[in-house]
Amino acid sequence: xxxFHHSRFADVTRLAALKRGQRVSVCIPTLDEADTIGRIVTxxxxxxxxxxxxxxxLLVIDSGSTDATRELAREAGATIHLSADIAPEQGTFRGxxxxxxxxxxxxxxxxxxxxxxxxCNFHERFVTGLVGPLLxxxxxxxxxxxxxxxxxxxxxxxxTGGGRVTxxxxxxxxxxxxxxxxxxxxxxxxxxxxxxxTFRALPFPCGYGVELAHLIDLSATIGLGRIAQTDLDERHHxxxxxxxxxxxxxxxxxxxxxRLERDGKLTLTGPLPEILKSWQFDxxxxxxxxxxxxxxxxxxxxxxxx
Length: 306
Description:
The chain has about 300 residues and is an alpha/beta fold. The chain has a single domain, classed as Spore Coat Polysaccharide Biosynthesis Protein SpsA, Chain A.
């Protein structure tokens, strides 16, 4: 697997020349990202569309934000789509993976780059470092980001400590069942780019299991030799609560266990539960909480062409 540093692709003019007629789409899934979305869209539009024509299309796919996310993104220059309004005949689910799958219905790029909408230190490297390898090397089909993830605390940032679900849950499970995938430094990173046909040949879990599913499925189809990683240095974002991370982990486990059974690594004796049980304490009363966390999957839009 090839590994790059984003600085290799800092010359945006050179990257634009490598397009040779190809179109590049940047798609941002959002849900209540008013604090960050304006800067992200403005940076992409100014640096990668107006200053140098690297990006041809900038889309925000929104899950129904109740803050000013859509308005701010539109003012900054993005094209806005409500996820529920795309391919309405297919119905709609709530979740990041659903937004990404719906984006494939409206994005027109030959190369599609996904970046999360909550990045606080957004820089054009989050696009150039992922799109660049695909423009430079025709043997690559998918490029994944990795970075340090500082963890916020009351006195500032610790330089490491983010990515708790990765280190506590995903990396140990990959070490047990898919050891070849431990070469990915950030298997759950939300920033990656691929050729259009590569994305359209993948099923998309509708929640936070989508990134892990991609790596497992791609390793079995195109192989790790057609995948690369790019070091983007650091990614800052809002840190989520343990309760939020528990829900994320529960969805990821559903995706993982389905693939473990599919790949003959274990046998499930029944359907996977979708109810997450946890305890809530309000200072006086301890009560169990039951939360539905389904993780349905959208099918591939096109068969893979060998």
